[in-house]
Amino acid sequence: MIRSTFLFAILLFTLMSGAAAEETSGATGIVSPGIDADLVVVRVSGDPITEKQVLNAISEMARQENLTLEQSRQRNSILFDRAIENLITVSLSRMKMREMNIAVSDAEVEAQMRQTAQSFPSPEAFQKALADQGLTETGLRNNIREIIRMQKFADESSKDAAPVTEAEIEKFYAGNRDKFALPERARVAHILLQIPPNATAAQKEEIRKKLEGIRVEIAAETITFADAAAKYSQDAKTAANGGEIGLMTRDNLPKPLADAVFNTKPGTVSPALESQSGYHILKALELLPAGQAALEEVKPALRQSLEQSAKQAARQKFIEQLKAKASIEYFMTSEEFAKRHQ
């Protein structure tokens, strides 16, 4: 999906929120580069967008994009116009949110705060992450409040998006069949014996022989593959499920393992094969040829994608309407900005 100015503005809003009110409230335009001041680059209905804000926005955009070395050197001129558009969107959104008086309750903030803290393995890890970002819990709460407020604003600005119809889903599917092509796939199970770090060649050979012995047991039908996986496999995630990994493509597996799976009949158990994880024996439970995903398979995800596109189009239209009504004054060109920040 095409990168959205509006959605990117949500991130910038949390970074810049309140900055305009605190900085350069008396500035009127460009002053001499030699004067130590945060210049106003654009005014949006009286709301200043400063040089410092533009630099911060460009830095954030550069972090998110895969710029070449040459592009990185010229990022101030390359990203200036987009940064300005994003910051204008932030400014207009902030004004409209004040007008709409969008409220965020303390309970909403605390619920998100708890969810954020619980995503870390320990309270200590959470506090370290805050410190690494130069944040306090109070600062994080303030950021969370602004994010929730902006999300509510985004929802409000897209409320007029038309619902996606069955006909639109079918039309998109029919016109973009290449997007729903499926490669050859296999439903794979394995039994893994890990190789300890710094294992000697003799130790590795002992592990391989043990796994070959397990394969012989399976071939002799003294134990099923699933039971052997539960009993012997050192892959804790799959052992209890008969060693089943799930659907894999050739690209998902190292070549020797992929060849063992895709070049044999379903049900065949491979010899012991080495990978970075250790030694494996593999079994292709089912081989699925390349083909096309059926409409019914992809319909839920396709509906969600089209709904998001419709909402984004409605948000963008909403912002464009705000821009059309706003007084926007530009005080610096991209060439002037780039010259100041070579």
Fold topology:
Elements: H1 5-16, H2 19-22, E1 40-44, E2 47-50, H3 51-64, H4 69-73, H5 75-78, H6 80-100, H7 106-118, H8 123-132, H9 137-157, H10 166-175, E3 181-182, E4 185-194, H11 201-219, H12 225-232, E5 244-249, H13 255-262, E6 273-275, E7 278-288, E8 291-292, H14 295-325, E9 328-330, H15 334-340
Antiparallel strand pairs: 1-2, 1-9, 3-8, 4-5, 4-7, 6-7
Helix pairs in contact: 1-6, 1-9, 3-6, 7-9
**Cα shape:** elongated
The computed structural class is alpha+beta
Give the number of DSSP strands. Answer: 9
Number of helices: 15
User: Terminal Cα separation, in Å?
Assistant: 33 Å
* Widest β-sheet, arrangement of strands: 5-4-7-6
Low-confidence stretches: 1-36
Approximately how much helix is present in the residues? 40-55%
Give me the Rg, rounded. Answer: 28 Å
Strand content: 5-15%
Q: Main β-sheet: number of strands, strand sense, barrel status?
A: 4 strands, antiparallel
Q: Please tell me the overall pLDDT.
A: 87
Q: Would you list the SSEs in sequence order as H and E?
A: HHEEHHHHHHHHEEHHEHEEEHEH
